[in-house]
Specification:
This protein has a single domain, classed as Cytochrome Bc1 Complex, Chain D, domain 2, CATH 1.10.760.10. It contains four helices and no strands. By secondary structure, the chain is mainly α. α1 crosses α4 and α3 crosses α4. InterPro entries: Cyt_c-like_dom, Cyt_c-like_dom_sf, Cyt_c_ID. It holds the Pfam family Cytochrom_C.
Length: 112
């Protein structure tokens, strides 16, 4: 009985450790994706370049449940006016896949 309790406790601790490590792995993936897709040519984490800083984007959309879909459309189709007069060019699926774009947006929105 004691061994079963220890085994159950170790299994629970291992699961918790995995859950704790996942956000940092996802963050690394999101950051790698924006670098690979060359989003960093116009954006940086904490400073404005051609486009807004990722942290500014996260702050603007904090708590907005519709933000991921709206940002997906904005990145995919491009646009202007939300952050100034410089337009954001469209980024089609051959430049960044749907899956990678969703992961990148998730990463951006997770920044504080």
């Amino acid at each position: 009985m004691k061994q079963q309790m220890q085994k159950a406790m170790l299994t629970g601790l291992a699961a918790a450790a995995t859950m704790i490590a996942m956000p940092s792995a996802q963050a690394a993936d999101g950051e790698a994706i924006v670098k690979k897709a060359r989003c960093v040519a116009c954006h940086a984490v904490d400073q404005k370049r051609v486009g807004p800083a990722y942290k500014e984007v996260a702050a603007k959309y904090k708590g907005d449940a519709k933000a991921p879909a709206a940002l997906f459309d904005k990145v995919r189709h491009g646009g202007s006016g939300n952050w100034g007069q410089v337009p954001m060019i469209p980024h089609p699926a051959d430049k960044i896949s749907d899956e990678d774009l969703k992961a990148a947006i998730h990463w951006v929105l997770s920044l504080d």
